[in-house]
């Protein structure tokens, strides 16, 4: 099982009516690998994350996570559509942070971080609080643990959202344009936290980002999406320094 990548999109397609958003996608993400997805608006980047989070059903193909099919399950040696219970078990391995922070507004930073560990994982409150305190410390927010989201800046809220996702002990973290809604001066503190997680945790990380400098410095691999396909992928130095594909060049010229 450990020979399998942490994530595998196998011939995955996604359509909305007549619109093909992902076209026969094949993508493997290795254990502990950090992958950035870049590309023009509407190229299907967010859909990739939403399908992994099972917020969207796929139309064709199979999605594998940690060596097991997620969208399907094995029955008598055949892949059949997965039950909700199966999907939920596999999805528990994945944490996601969104562009909009999505914190529970009526709970403190600490409350946000202990809610799911207690209700979903059945953790004891004291244990959940201990773990949450460690995570809030890691994201630099120990002093704000009793603050409500409305009392925090956007950057601080996003850091709580990251701590909250990590509190569920995921193996895979998805980041969807997590700095896009932030004022420019708050972007750095959130990227700093993501960098730290990358260094200190053996997590597989997949991010959609418009921060090209960050993608270049942080990722093991960069995938450039265009019209629902991976148009070009490779090490950041190759993609940013010597893109082979004309579309990649055009995109980078426009954004850099
Ligand atoms: P990106 O993240 O690269 O900007 P998305 O994955 O969000 O692109 O979207 C890809 C395409 O799918 C876009 O054309 C978008 O309009 C379309 N799309 C996304 N979600 C839906 C939906 N729920 N219904 C119909 N079309 C959608």
From TrEMBL:
<dbReference type="GO" id="GO:0005886">
    <property type="term" value="C:plasma membrane"/>
</dbReference>
<dbReference type="InterPro" id="IPR003593">
    <property type="entry name" value="AAA+_ATPase"/>
</dbReference>
<dbReference type="InterPro" id="IPR003439">
    <property type="entry name" value="ABC_transporter-like_ATP-bd"/>
</dbReference>
<dbReference type="GO" id="GO:0016887">
    <property type="term" value="F:ATP hydrolysis activity"/>
</dbReference>
<comment type="similarity">
    <text>Belongs to the ABC transporter superfamily.</text>
</comment>
<keyword id="KW-0547">Nucleotide-binding</keyword>
<dbReference type="GO" id="GO:0015424">
    <property type="term" value="F:ABC-type amino acid transporter activity"/>
</dbReference>
<feature type="domain" description="ABC transporter">
    <location>
        <begin position="7"/>
        <end position="252"/>
    </location>
</feature>
<keyword id="KW-1003">Cell membrane</keyword>
<dbReference type="GO" id="GO:0005524">
    <property type="term" value="F:ATP binding"/>
</dbReference>
<dbReference type="Pfam" id="PF00005">
    <property type="entry name" value="ABC_tran"/>
</dbReference>
<keyword id="KW-0472">Membrane</keyword>
<dbReference type="InterPro" id="IPR050086">
    <property type="entry name" value="MetN_ABC_transporter-like"/>
</dbReference>
<dbReference type="InterPro" id="IPR030679">
    <property type="entry name" value="ABC_ATPase_HisP-typ"/>
</dbReference>
<dbReference type="InterPro" id="IPR027417">
    <property type="entry name" value="P-loop_NTPase"/>
</dbReference>
<dbReference type="InterPro" id="IPR014343">
    <property type="entry name" value="Ectoine_EhuA"/>
</dbReference>
<dbReference type="InterPro" id="IPR017871">
    <property type="entry name" value="ABC_transporter-like_CS"/>
</dbReference>
<protein>
    <submittedName>
        <fullName>Ectoine/hydroxyectoine ABC transporter ATP-binding protein EhuA</fullName>
    </submittedName>
</protein>
<keyword id="KW-0813">Transport</keyword>
<keyword id="KW-0029">Amino-acid transport</keyword>
<keyword id="KW-0067">ATP-binding</keyword>
């Amino acid at each position: 099982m450990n020979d399998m990548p942490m994530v595998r999109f196998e011939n995955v397609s996604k359509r909305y009516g007549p619109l093909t958003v992902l076209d026969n996608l094949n993508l493997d993400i290795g254990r502990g690998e950090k992958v950035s997805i870049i590309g023009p608006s509407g190229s299907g980047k967010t859909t990739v994350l939403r399908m992994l989070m099972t917020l969207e059903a796929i139309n064709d193909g199979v999605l594998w996570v940690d060596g097991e099919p997620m969208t399907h399950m094995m029955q008598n040696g055949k892949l059949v559509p997965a039950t909700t219970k199966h999907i939920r078990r596999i999805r528990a391995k994945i944490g996601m942070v969104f562009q909009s922070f999505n914190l529970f507004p009526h709970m403190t930073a600490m409350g946000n971080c202990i809610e799911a560990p207690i209700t979903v994982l059945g953790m004891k409150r004291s244990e959940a609080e201990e773990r949450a305190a460690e995570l809030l410390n890691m994201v630099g927010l120990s002093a704000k643990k009793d603050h409500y989201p409305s009392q925090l800046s956007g950057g601080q809220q996003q850091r709580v959202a990251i701590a909250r996702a990590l509190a569920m002990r995921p193996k895979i973290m998805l980041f969807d344009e997590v700095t896009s809604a932030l004022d420019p001066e708050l972007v750095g503190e959130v990227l700093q936290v993501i960098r730290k997680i990358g260094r200190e945790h053996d997590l597989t990380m997949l991010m959609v980002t418009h921060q090209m400098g960050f993608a270049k410095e942080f990722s093991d691999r960069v995938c450039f999406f265009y019209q629902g396909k991976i148009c070009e992928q490779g090490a950041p130095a190759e993609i940013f320094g010597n893109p082979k594909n004309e579309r990649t060049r055009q995109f980078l010229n426009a954004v850099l």
